[in-house]
């Protein structure tokens, strides 16, 4: 029998990756993050030569590192220097002519201004389509005066159109209404604008028959006072914060609305300005803070005939009541999915469950309860839903706090923020067989 030929030293040392066509190498690299692409460049000389041209989307996500810092395993100051170097080194090597996305997610402040200013200039010069700077602070009490200040003068003094930009997201960044209005006027393709935690934002006017804007969300900007909206293509509007002067002059395509208050500020004022558009909504999200014994109460709603998805987040205490949600649920006769999030404060005077008249709900198919505490306050709401939604297909009960649910985090980071006995209370509800729907306990 012949001997099996062993590979020669030449074939062992041969760089087979270099023999692949550029198109195939580019296809492989396109599935990698910027960090992975540059790390793997040691595999081949040609691979390394192609890396500067890829990818067209640069996502510098430091969320995992932020979790490690939160747990005391890493130093914020040290990791901040690393991410600054990472971004700077990548941009120095980048040779792409155009860019689809540029995103940075890490806690940065005005001390990094010279670096971030350069990143923005780079992204704009490459015709970036989606720009996101998420500098979310770990502490909600961090001094906002230290937040990174967006370089207004770079744009408000330059009337050149930024023709490529379609999406702009700014979190924990100081940005003015003047600058945002400039972007809206000089970015003819801008469809998405999201601003979170900017104390420089006070007033905003959204005007223009040619506006492409479809998505506008202003979240927790504490100095915000007023907004005027005249946007023919707006589909999604969100505002969470203190009571403001809200004027919606024209939004004929509005389908999705999020309204939320802060620190017990009411949200009901917003419904007056939105009253002409409530009937056409398909999705409604409400964030409510209520710490009174009367509980959550909503004004009488017009019939929400097109509403399919309703999400309500309530921060309250055990002595409160959630039965005030029922008229809102019943105002949407074709509601398909209801998501309820409870942020509950413990007190020593819980109320007893009250009986409420139930009306059959024929269209509600899915219910999700997040932050289930297993107390009278939320058990009575769950029982109402189980008994009234006669065609319910699935109910999900999650005892974990809403502020940790759905947040990406490392697998080795475990959170146990839930009320004692909540899971057992959910099991007892499941055993009562109040519904034939699938009953899932997370």
Automatic annotation (TrEMBL):
Record-linked PROSITE patterns: FBOX
Domain of life of the organism encoding this protein: Eukaryota
All copies of domain F-box, residue ranges: 14-50
The protein's name: F-box domain-containing protein
Native source species: Quercus lobata (Valley oak)
